[in-house]
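In the previous lecture we treated proteins in isolation. Real proteins rarely work alone, and many bind small molecules. This record shows how such a complex is specified: first the sequence, then the SMILES for zinc ion.
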Amino acid sequence: MTQSIKSYNEAVAFHGHACPGLALGYRAAEYALQHLRAGRSEDEDLVAIVENDACGVDAIQLVAGCSVGKGNLIYHDYGKHAYTFIDRISNRAIRLVQRPEPVVQRIDPVAFTLREKVMAGTATSAENKEFHARQAAVIEKILRMPIDELFIARDVKPEIPVRAKVFTSVQCAVCGELVAEHRARVKDGKFICIPCAGDYGRGW
Ligand SMILES: [Zn+2]
Ligand SMILES: [Zn+2]
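The predicted 3D structure, ligand included, written as tokens:
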């Protein structure tokens, strides 16, 4: 059944703040839904593969109805602003990659420069105010720009990475907690969980 696409304001409420990254993720998910079919995924028909874990992914979760727990949000820690959406019903897929020219810099170079000062905490209160006004205008623009000025979109072969279905747990020899066997490390012939192995990563 076709449902209306969630609004950008709903994405802001979900994410906790408005930002250009969220607006970009919103446009990607909105375009994918319109391109592949209308409506949000309630039952894992739509799969999103994201290649970063920044702000935009929150919009994708909300708009496309994809989540890690449902298994239809797949995260690759590639550090790329690239999003692939696969519709299991129509068996079609689309990949959107953000254009190489920095979008905020293209829209408003002053906002781009001010951002550095604001982030570094060296901006005056007037500069802070100006930055926020400019940032809001940039977001407005992102929400209305033609999609091909933001992303390079192309149809791709629908390929969904296979998830392990059966989980056997083993006990970590260091902390004693159970860990899925396929995520455990082996050290001196014993199973060890990732934190105990000191193998920290950003991935989840
Ligand atoms: Zn954000
Ligand atoms: Zn452990």
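Summary for your notes: The mean pLDDT is 90. Residues 15, 17, 19, 21-22, 55 surround zinc ion (ligand 1) (CB under 6 Å).
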